[in-house]
UniProtKB/TrEMBL annotation:
<dbReference type="InterPro" id="IPR003439">
    <property type="entry name" value="ABC_transporter-like_ATP-bd"/>
</dbReference>
<dbReference type="InterPro" id="IPR051782">
    <property type="entry name" value="ABC_Transporter_VariousFunc"/>
</dbReference>
<keyword id="KW-0813">Transport</keyword>
<dbReference type="InterPro" id="IPR017871">
    <property type="entry name" value="ABC_transporter-like_CS"/>
</dbReference>
<dbReference type="Pfam" id="PF00005">
    <property type="entry name" value="ABC_tran"/>
</dbReference>
<keyword id="KW-0547">Nucleotide-binding</keyword>
<dbReference type="InterPro" id="IPR003593">
    <property type="entry name" value="AAA+_ATPase"/>
</dbReference>
<feature type="domain" description="ABC transporter">
    <location>
        <begin position="2"/>
        <end position="218"/>
    </location>
</feature>
<dbReference type="InterPro" id="IPR027417">
    <property type="entry name" value="P-loop_NTPase"/>
</dbReference>
<keyword id="KW-0067">ATP-binding</keyword>
<protein>
    <submittedName>
        <fullName>ABC transporter ATP-binding protein</fullName>
    </submittedName>
</protein>
<dbReference type="GO" id="GO:0005524">
    <property type="term" value="F:ATP binding"/>
</dbReference>
């Protein structure tokens, strides 16, 4: 379980959110929603321990998230923008990360099949579409069978076909033993994927089940 207690975060002199309290349980698929500049990525960075809170604390299974042992072997994070080796093939990129993490070679094939990229394994990264590139990123994110998968704007910039491919993969990520956190601007993604929503508004964060959120806020937020 991730537990956030009395959390306040600032950027320079600006308060991003303040006195926030909520928990995220295992098996939940949580959409992080808010207007541009509301602090969605800032919240993700705090949750995974990339940045420290101004006040309050965040813990995972009782350990502070900024402690090295807190997330070890449990977390996978895919930022909105990421880099792969353009001169290498799809499978070579994923294999390189797997080797670095000492993950068995058979898992490389498993994650590429999960993201429907195995048939394109020999294509160079410089030759794949943006949608396929995102699927390679997801393949890397799924290596090691992480318990928590965190995705920042995973469908950003994709055409409807590529976006639909990513959503199908995301639907199969969350299980009773694996949780999914993702940022989005699209209400149909909340409706299709999320069990819960973290809604950032007016320097506050409220947690709602997805159906309640959609009933209360869908009309007021552009999809």
């Amino acid at each position: 379980m991730i537990k956030i207690e009395n959390a306040t975060q600032m950027y320079h002199s600006n308060i991003i959110f303040e006195q926030v309290n909520f928990t995220i349980d295992r098996g939940e698929r949580v959409a992080i929603v808010g207007r541009n500049g509301a602090g969605k990525t800032t919240l993700l960075h705090a949750l995974v321990g990339f940045s420290r809170l101004k006040e309050g604390k965040i813990s995972i299974d009782g350990k502070a998230v900024h402690q090295p042992a807190a997330w070890k072997g449990k977390l996978s994070y895919l930022p909105e923008k990421f880099q792969l080796y353009l001169q290498l093939s799809v499978v070579e990129n994923v294999q390189y990360v797997a080797d670095t993490l000492r993950i068995p070679k058979k898992e490389v094939e498993a994650v590429l099949r999960h993201t429907n990229m195995w048939d394109y394994k020999d294509k160079r990264i410089s030759q794949v579409s943006k949608g396929m590139l995102q699927r390679v990123g997801l393949s890397v994110a799924l290596l090691g069978k992480p318990e928590w998968v965190v995705l920042d704007e995973p469908t950003s910039g994709l055409d409807p076909f590529g976006r639909n491919d990513i959503l199908k993969i995301m639907e199969n990520i969350g299980t009773s033993n694996r949780s999914l956190l993702f940022t989005t601007h699209h209400m149909n993604e909340v409706n299709k994927i999320a069990t819960h929503v973290l809604y950032l508004h007016d320097k506050k964060i409220i947690k709602l089940d997805a159906n309640t959120f959609l009933e209360q806020f869908e009309r007021s937020i552009s999809s």
